[in-house]
Recover the amino acids of this structure.
């Protein structure tokens, strides 16, 4: 069965520090997609990244980077030089490689960036 | 950029009342979804819909829930007789037909409050 575990419920860091959000997933499929979403206090889900299971290259987008390790079933997310605007709940999610398959979300990590 | 829209943004209803949440998916998308997020919890899959029928539904999606695509643009979620525990944020999502461009686009959500 599919499962996404975000062991960190809540993290607080001081602005400008780097922070890594952990994500571990379980799936039986060899083809699957991994996602990260940001949910600011306003409540909408902001798409950050999608990665398919065949692409293990790490990704960097500005201050954001993602580390995908199939060997440990992890898809961690790092924010470099954090800013107060990064404060939000971050969800890691998984979808199996079927066209219309549902997305399974982790419980989320609430990130507080302190000024 | 095309986006998924949802109305209303906030709905307050009394227990036992019927409520209809509306979504307008992106126009060329063929797969539609509803997700629910109880306050402070993770986002949970409710139902997926394709070709005018339900593809998959979760155990949450009981007989009180129904979905419909009444015309070429709207996708609705009806809760027949609301309960207090139906209070949540409801997200609609849609995706294209092509597997290689698979991505679910989420709407901004409708916050349902049952009193």
């Amino acid at each position: 069965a599919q499962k996404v575990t975000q062991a960190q419920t809540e993290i607080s860091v001081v602005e400008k520090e780097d922070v890594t959000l952990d994500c571990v997933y379980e799936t039986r499929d060899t083809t699957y997609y991994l996602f990260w979403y940001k949910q600011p206090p306003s409540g909408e889900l902001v798409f950050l990244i999608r990665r398919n299971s065949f692409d293990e290259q790490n990704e960097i987008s500005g201050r954001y980077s993602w580390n995908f390790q199939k060997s440990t079933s992890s898809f961690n997310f790092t924010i470099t030089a954090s800013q107060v605007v990064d404060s939000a709940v971050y969800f890691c999610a998984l979808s199996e490689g079927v066209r219309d398959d549902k997305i399974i979300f982790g419980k989320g990590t609430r990130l507080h960036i302190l000024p | 950029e095309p986006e998924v829209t949802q109305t209303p943004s906030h709905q307050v209803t009394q227990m036992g009342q019927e409520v209809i949440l509306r979504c307008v998916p992106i126009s060329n998308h063929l797969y539609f979804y509803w997700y629910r997020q109880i306050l402070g919890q993770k986002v949970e899959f409710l139902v997926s819909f394709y070709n005018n029928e339900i593809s998959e539904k979760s155990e949450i999606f009981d007989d009180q829930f129904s979905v419909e695509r009444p015309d070429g643009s709207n996708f609705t979620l009806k809760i027949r007789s609301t309960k207090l525990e139906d209070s949540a944020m409801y997200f609609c999502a849609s995706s294209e037909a092509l597997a290689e461009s698979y991505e679910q686009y989420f709407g901004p959500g409708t916050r349902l409050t049952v009193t």
Summary: Chain A touches chain B through 21 residues (CB under 8 Å). The CA atoms of residues 93 and 109 of chain A lie 12 Å apart. Chain A has no helices and twelve strands. Chain A has a mean pLDDT of 93.
